[in-house]
Amino acid sequence: MRLEVISLTWPAFIELVMSTLFSMVDTIMVGRLSSAAISAVGLTTSPFMVLLAVFAAVNVGTTTIVAWNIGAGNTEKANTVARQSVILNFIMGIAVSVAGAALAHQIVVFMGAEADTIKDATAYFQIVSAGLVFQAVNMGVTAALRGAGETTIPMIYNVGSNLFNVLGNYLLIFGKFGFPKLGVEGAAISTTISRFIACAVSLYIVFFSKRSTISIKVKGSYRIDFDIAREVFSIGLPSALEQFVIQGGLMMFARTVSSLGTMTFAAHQIGLSICGLTFSPSMAFGVAGTTLVGQSLGANDEERAQRYADIIHHMAIAVACFMGVMFILFSYPLACLYTEELEVAAMASVVLKIMALAQPGQSTQLSLAGVLRGAGDTMFPLYSSAFGIWIFRVVVAYIFVHFFHWGLIGAWAALVLDQYTRAAIVYFRYASGKWKYIKSRNEEVREIEVCS
Predict the structure, then answer these.
(1) pTM
(2) 348 CB burial (10 A radius; 0-12, 13-18, 19+)
(3) pLDDT surpasses 60 at 451
């Protein structure tokens, strides 16, 4: 079973790690402009994630339902769900893109942008928001493919698009090979073009290629199937609320840190960028958990689902502990890659050492939350995020920073407390075993509704 877990995890792991590395390279390139440029891009991160939270309702529901149907041998229903995922994300993506572009200035002002960052932050937010519809459609296709156990294909097109993004950043940020030198705006344009490429390739895979389990017919209906949409949202809506809770809390957390000044926020942003290396493995194990547990429960095999979940959790913790040791040993050299300002690098090095302490908790909550989502048990990840994020990253971080005057260290200490709080809530739900019977109860409810 470990080999099956690894076979599903490694493509998602490679995809997420490579995406993180490319993002790190992007930040390093922007950092060569100035610490203000890093802060300008960093200020937009949390608001973007809030906008993307809208799509979690469709994506999580899609992955879970596709996994159930693949496990039950019902490929036709899985393909129908995938089609609806593309349609729903396209419609919502247009609305979110327009809203983000129109409200860019107000959003970056709310985030606490200072005079040296507000212009670049607004331009970056507008350009990237315009391309969110492409990312939304790509996320819908990727969710369906992962539910079918197809993690290699999304890895290929997402890594490829990120590689293009790095090249585009080099050309447009610095004005190489005859291209205009656009600075932060160049980074935004490159990001939008790379997302369009990933979207186009993902649609080609499911509509025209025969290499995937998921295959959508071009000539089929493009109307919303409200029965399928209802089923998708019934599972995915708590995950969307969870993402709103998480990203809303992270946005308030970013505001707290941004009040410490541009250089401190730049160090914070460098820390977050490097910490993506630790999120990626745990998120990859979460993807494997959603798929394997979902397919096992789709085949009505609760015992196999439990075995998969145990293996995934143990492997996630082992990798996270290794990453924590690497952060303790190499935090300062990693931070120096981003900036030549030694004070900023020193602050970033300290927060990375603090983050090393959070690794067991972070890996537990991310990997087991994926397991629970595969079972359709999406409420407890929501509860854990609401409590952990808003109590510790919003309230406690504010107290540590503004009342105890602990600065950036206080903010990141609150982050560690958040990770272990979420881990405890998710773990206790997992240990109860009740998640294994959510799917069967949902089916009983639907049967009663049909009969009535």
Answers:
(1) 0.77
(2) buried
(3) no
